[in-house]
């Protein structure tokens, strides 16, 4: 008489937890595969968790809370806020970003110390005064805003959500497959290891998104009449606030280091403007600094 020591088997001779794990993984792959959309700007087929309308709604709902975490939004009538909005609109309206289904809005946040800019799904774009006051001219600001618009156009947030959901399904499948009554803790241990691997993979995806957003930003700002050299100026600002010593290894952070991004930017410029930057692409005007509300 055969003994299975606590594990139940199917008629096919496989443990039931293997079959359940396979079903979980299959369902995850089916859901991921069916959530696709063709990007109207790039023409590429993407796996996304949200529709464009859902992205817009999520961005609008999240915007007040995100602004509050950085001191709140500067009045739209503030000269610097008007400057941010004007240059942001110029970048979108005069570039292929205008082909996207999103209505971009540009916000200046009060925080004078945090050097940051970010975008929410659907077109809500933010920059802190801490970063704006370190930029010199319109081209540099166009580079920052173009980069953030690139995240929106690239649908990076929705892509990450879809990948996260798939990874959660696969981790659940691995945990089920590794567990049995004789080793009750093995499934938990395997799941923990898988979670670490998933986090590292997620960081890799995020760094890829940042590189892609830089390329979008370079494209958008150039189409809007700004020299892509402005993006090099942005990287120099980021280098100043990101010391080369005492920082985490690059594979553990969300953004490639500024010096590596700078090399990619230089490569993009050389590839797209082999004969030099056209004379029609300019730095624009110097930016306003320290304007009181």
How is this structure best described in words?
There is one protein chain. The chain is mainly α and 293 residues long. It contains 9 helices and 5 strands; from the N terminus they run αββααβββαααααα. The chain has helices at 16-34, 52-68, 79-93, 129-132, 138-153, 156-178, 186-223, 229-241, 258-272; strands at residues 36-38, 45-47, 105-109, 117-120, 124-128. The strands form 2 sheets. The protein has a 3-stranded mixed beta sheet. Strand 1 and strand 2 (45-47) form a beta hairpin. Helix 3 (79-93) crosses helix 5 (138-153) and helix 6 runs antiparallel to helix 7. The chain is elongated and about 75 Å long. The N and C termini lie far apart (85 Å).
Bin the strand percentage: 5-15%
Q: CA-to-CA gap between the ends?
A: 85 Å
- Please report the total strand number as a whole number: 5
**How would you describe the shape?**
elongated
Fraction of residues in helix: 40-55%
Structural class: mainly alpha
Low-pLDDT ranges: 1-6
Largest sheet: 3 strands, mixed
Descriptive labels:
7% strand, three-stranded mixed sheet, single chain, mainly alpha, 293 residues, disordered N terminus
């Amino acid at each position: 008489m055969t003994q299975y020591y606590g594990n139940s088997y199917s008629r096919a001779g496989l443990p039931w937890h293997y079959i359940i794990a396979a079903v979980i993984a299959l369902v995850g792959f089916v859901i991921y595969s069916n959530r696709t959309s063709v990007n109207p700007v790039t023409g590429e087929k993407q796996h996304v968790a949200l529709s464009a309308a859902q992205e817009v709604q999520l961005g609008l709902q999240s915007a007040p809370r995100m602004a509050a975490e950085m001191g709140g939004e500067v009045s739209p009538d503030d000269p610097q806020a008007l400057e941010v909005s004007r240059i942001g609109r110029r970048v979108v309206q005069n570039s292929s970003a205008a082909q996207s289904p999103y209505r971009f809005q540009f916000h200046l946040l009060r925080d004078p110390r945090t050097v940051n800019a970010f975008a929410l799904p659907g077109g809500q774009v933010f920059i802190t005064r801490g970063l704006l006051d370190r930029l010199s001219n319109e081209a540099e600001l166009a580079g920052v805003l173009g980069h953030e618009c690139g995240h929106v156009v690239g649908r990076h947030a929705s892509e990450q959500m879809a990948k996260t959901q798939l990874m959660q399904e696969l981790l659940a499948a691995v945990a089920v497959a590794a567990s049995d009554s004789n080793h009750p803790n093995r499934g938990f241990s395997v799941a923990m290891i898988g979670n670490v691997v998933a986090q590292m993979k997620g960081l890799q995806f995020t760094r890829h998104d940042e590189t892609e957003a830089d390329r979008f930003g370079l494209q958008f700002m150039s189409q809007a009449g700004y020299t892509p050299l402005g993006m090099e100026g942005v990287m120099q600002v980021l280098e100043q606030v990101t010391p080369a010593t005492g920082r985490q290894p690059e594979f553990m952070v969300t953004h490639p280091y500024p010096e590596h991004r700078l090399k990619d930017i230089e490569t993009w410029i050389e590839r797209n403007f082999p004969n030099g930057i056209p004379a029609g692409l300019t730095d624009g005007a110097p930016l306003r600094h320290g304007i009181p509300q």
